[in-house]
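debug: dumping io for the single-chain case to check the tokenizer round-trip. Nothing else runs in this session.
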Amino acid sequence: MTPARQRLIALGILAVVLGLAWLAVVQPIADAFAAQRDGIEQSRRMLAAYEGRIAMRPLVEAKLAQMRSRETGSTGLVGGTSAELAAANIQNVMKTLIESAAGQMRSAQNLAPVTSGGFQRIEIQYDLLLPMTRLKDMVYRIETVTPYLFLDSVDLRAPETWDASGLQLDPPNIDVHWTVRGYRWTGVQ
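debug: decoded output
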């Protein structure tokens, strides 16, 4: 072999060794640094986004305070942070009204709430017994109470054996089945 050819082979081997050293040592380190740079850049973008959201906090709190003041300023709406709490508030009002009219609540069933236009409709079906002479006052009190409540699907059943001409001391009870509806502000439109 000629000395020029030996030098050429030695240079080739050196190039292969340097290439393998590059691929085995230098390239993984360079890739690790590049991955770190990408991670740092992504962290900076996320930090900027979080700082932007933090800067918006006073605006969000002001909007929330405005919405809460609007909710509390709407006295006709049923209070409660959820549909279940609003239904419980309606049931408390109704229980008081029914007991004050000498009525007996047999059952109360919450219906599924319906949300529309920022309001949530809360409905409860009631089955109760009520003295016949107190029905008119009871209906009036329900529809004039605050929060505003509305009656729907009213079904009344009087006893068949009642004699209005007789001298009964106690008025007969009538079976009442109705749905009471109230509205809660959700703010979501």
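debug: round-trip ok. Residues 105 and 128 are 4 Å apart (CA to CA).
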